[in-house]
Amino acid sequence: MADTFTQRYALVTGANKGIGFEICRQLASKGMKVILASRNEKRGIEARERLLKESRSISDDDVVFHQLDVADPASAVAVAHFIETKFGRLDILVNNAGFTGVAIEGDISVYQECLEANIIAAQGGQAHPFHPKTTGRLIETLEGSKECIETNYYGTKRITETLIPLLQKSDSPTIVNVSSTFSTLLLQPNEWAKGVFSSNSLNEGKVEEVLHEFLKDFIDGKLQQNHWPPNFAAYKVSKAAVNAYTRIIARKYPSFCINSVCPGFVRTDICYNLGVLSEAEGAEAPVKLALLPDGGPSGSFFSREEALSLY
Ligand SMILES: NC(=O)c1ccc[n+]([C@@H]2O[C@H](COP(=O)([O-])OP(=O)(O)OC[C@H]3O[C@@H](n4cnc5c(N)ncnc54)[C@H](OP(=O)(O)O)[C@@H]3O)[C@@H](O)[C@H]2O)c1
Fold it and tell me: Is 14 in the pocket of ligand 1 (CB under 6 A)?
C-alpha cells in the first residue's frame, strides 16, 4: 500500500457502469484511491460492491463511492466538500459521464449503419446524406439534445471548475475528458461552428455561443438549413465543445496535464452494446492519459490508438 506521500486520489464521473466503471477498476489496480461517482446512489453503491467482489487485488479502502450528478451544481459542490474533508486534494479527474441524446426506434442496426456512414464521411472529409437500409430510425429530440449538451459539455465544465481548487493542491494535477471521434471537425458541416472550434483565440464564451445557436436552430427548425450535423447532431457538437474546452483550460492551467480522448468503439449501453472493444479495452486510453508522467502533453485530443502509443 502506498504511503501518504505517494498516494494519489482520482475521481471518475459516470462510473457506475461502462467505461467509467472500468476506469475505476484500472486506476484502483494501479494504486490510486478512487472516488467512484454515480448520479444514482443505489447504482453507485452496487457498482462499488461489484468492483470489490470481482477484483481481489482491490481492497475495501481503495474505492469509495460518492453521489454526483454532473448536471446538478449542488452535487458538484457536495463531492468537492467530501474530497476536501476526506483527502485534502485531488490528483486526477476523469470527466467520463456522457449521453448521446439519440434514441432508436425499431431495428438497432441503424446505429451501426450510421456509425459506418460517419466513419466514411470523416475519412473522406465530406458529410454524405445518410439513408439507412434498415427500418430503424434515429430519434433526436430537443429535450434529448439539451440533456446531451448539459451532460457532456456543461457537466464537464461544471465538475472541472468546482474541483480545480482541489486539483491545484496536487503535485501533478491531471484531467482526462472522455470525448469521441464524432467530435472531429470533419463531421461539423457548419462552417461558422467549425471556425470557432478551430480558432486560436478560442474562449468559453465563443464555445457556448455555438451551443446556444445550435439549440436555437433546433427550436426554430433550422438545423438542416444552417448545416448542423445530419445525425448525432447534439453529441457531435457537444463533444467538439469538450475538446475546445480542453484546449482552453490547458492554456489557462499550464501546470496541469489536461487532455481529451476517444476510448474507441466500446460495447456499452450508450451504443446499444454494438461496439467492438470490451469495457476494459475502452478504459485503457483514458487510464493511460490519467497516469501520464509529469511533462506530458496537455491540451490535446487523442484517439485511443494515439493515446496508447504515447511514451
Ligand atoms: N461506448 C463507446 O463506444 C464510446 C465511444 C466514444 C465515446 N464514448 C464516451 O465514453 C463515456 C462513457 O460512456 P460509456 O460508453 O461507458 O456509456 P454508458 O455505459 O452508457 O455510461 C454512461 C455513464 O454516464 C453516466 N451519466 C449520464 N448522465 C450523467 C449525469 N448527468 N451525471 C452523472 N453521470 C451521468 C451514466 O449514468 P446512469 O447509469 O445513471 O445513466 C453512466 O454511468 C461517455 O462520455 C461517452 O460519450 C463512448
Answer: yes
DSSP state string for 130-162: ---SSS-EEE--HHHHHHHHIIIIIIHHHHHHH
Q: Is residue 18 within 8 Å of 268, Cβ to Cβ?
A: yes
Backbone angles phi, psi at 214, to 5 degrees: -60, -50
Catalytic-residue membership of 153: no
- Asked, for residue 155, whether it belongs to a domain, the answer is yes
Q: What is the mean pLDDT of each run of 10 residues along the chain (311 residues)?
A: 71 98 98 98 98 96 98 98 98 98 94 89 71 90 98 98 98 98 93 96 97 98 96 97 98 98 97 95 98 96 96 85
- Residue 125 has a pLDDT of 57
Please check whether residue 142 lies inside any domain of the structure.
no
What CA–CA distance (Å, rounded) separates 8 from 27?
Answer: 10
Range of the domain at 158: 9-99+150-188+235-308
Collapse the DSSP code of 277 into the 3-class scheme (helix H, G, I; strand E, B; otherwise coil) and give the result. strand
Burial 234-249 (b: 16+ CB within 10 A, else e): bbbbbbbbbbbbbbbb
What is the atom index within ligand 1 of the atom nearest the CA of 275?
A: 3
pLDDT at 145: 98
Q: Is 102 in the pocket of ligand 1 (CB under 6 A)?
A: no
CATH of the domain at 259: 3.40.50.720
CA–CA gap between residue 109 and residue 40 (Å, rounded): 29
Domain count across the chain: 1
